[in-house]
Specification:
The protein is an all-alpha fold. The protein has 2 helices and no strands.
Length: 61
């Protein structure tokens, strides 16, 4: 399993916990969905940035 997959699974669990807490606080389901989708998109962007392979610059001799 790749680092990105593990990161995304952890982030989805984090979002689920926040969504459940928001539900218990009585926040409207529409706003919970908006927040969850926004956080999921943000998590994907951050995950790609943290796990992508870095380009190696050529060594100067």
């Amino acid at each position: 399993m790749s680092s990105f997959s593990l990161y995304l699974i952890g982030f989805v669990i984090f979002i689920a916990g926040l969504a459940y807490g928001a539900f218990l606080l009585g926040i409207a389901t529409t706003w919970i969905a908006v927040g969850a989708f926004t956080l999921f998109g943000l998590g994907m962007v951050i995950g790609v940035g943290k796990t992508r392979a870095r380009d190696e610059s050529p060594a100067s001799d």
